[in-house]
Amino acid sequence: MGIADEARIEEISASDTLLIAGPPMTGKYQLMLQLLASYCDQSIVISTKNQADRVRKDYRQFAGEVSDEYIGVIDCVSHRETINDVEETPSTKYVSSPQNMTGIGVKFTELYSRFHDDLDRGQTGVGLHSISQLLMHSDIKTVYQFLQVLTGQIRSAGWMGIAVVETAVTDDENLQMLQHHFDGIIETRENDAGQREYRIKGLTPSASEWREF
Amino acid sequence: MSEDRPTILIVEDEEELADTFARWLESDYKVIKVYSGEVALQTMSEDVDVVLLDRRLPDLSGGEVLERIRDAGYECRVAMITAVDPDFDILEMEFDDYVVKPVLQDDLFGIVERLLALQTYDEQVKQSFGLASKLAILESEKPSEELRSNEEYNERREELKKLREQIDSTLAGFEPDAFTIAYRDLGHGNEK
Description:
The complex is a heterodimer of chains A (213) and B (192). Chain A has a nine-stranded mixed sheet with strand order 4-3-2-5-6-1-7-8-9, with helices on both faces. Chain A is an alpha/beta fold and 213 residues long. Chain A has helices spanning 2-5, 28-39, 52-63, 101-118, 131-137, 140-156, 172-179; strands spanning 17-22, 42-47, 71-75, 92-94, 124-129, 160-166, 184-190, 196-201, 211-212. Chain B is an alpha/beta fold and 192 residues long. A five-stranded parallel sheet of chain B has the order 2-1-3-4-5, sandwiched between helices. In chain B, helix 2 runs parallel beside helix 3 (62-71).
């Protein structure tokens, strides 16, 4: 499992905002969690595909034993929305749908305050899985604006940010526009031998070579 | 926003209070003060950047004035002036912020500055989206070798880069409340 051994990538630093882009089944979600677990001591994941419990379980595969409170999750997939926060915990928030980016942002800001002011385990990272789900429910302009606030908020705190996008279902033009919000792009693919590979663009003058992981 | 100083509209029927606010703010901003809801609506214009709006006015409620400002399509920021801490009812209304009386000069400036920063941010993001769209269209129309030597393309890229640095700088000054307002703004004014 190449990347797990040297979990950190030479070009990447803990305060970068990155976009992981590639076709389906090329390890993007795994790579996102792996990077968060390697560079950060506590993380917040905005999840439009997996429920909170599943996200924490997957994160722990790379981070080892970490208590729930240091893995914040904004769960947009369980379709739960409570007004009086009965089911929400300090680290788990629910938003009814990926369409509700205002809700995602407001809940994220609650976790942002908590992780910024109260938790002090170390560097914080934020994962967004995935931008494509957001684009399925909203127009590009609103998603662009949402990502502007989100990545700006992350950068203002000096945190790491990693978002995932499925290239197969995203317009090239939309992809081009959203790239501006990120310091670097990690492209993923499966090579002819069926091995997963990644390469990095944007952090250094020229793109890296393709590397197996 | 007009090119010179930002414009603040004060709507407050307690005349002494309105005059005090105006005196404080005049040093840095263009200030208009009115003492009733109807006059406020007559005075509203595209040039107004921030409205400080009393919750209780003799003719219309603050909430009604706010609704009519929004219906008319003005995108200024509006802060409610109130003597009581906002409760849930008030939070239902779409004010951007609250001025709770009595308020200190520094605090009033803080609120106005925060709202102006949000206005600036709004305009910058709209511009940035416009530029990013143009670039994306050029990128889809021309091969990258051609783009690298295309003057217009390179100039726009530089422009966007500078704009993005300004945006990051604006956001770096935001407190959590300001981010919340920015998220609540999402989608406003976007065509369907």
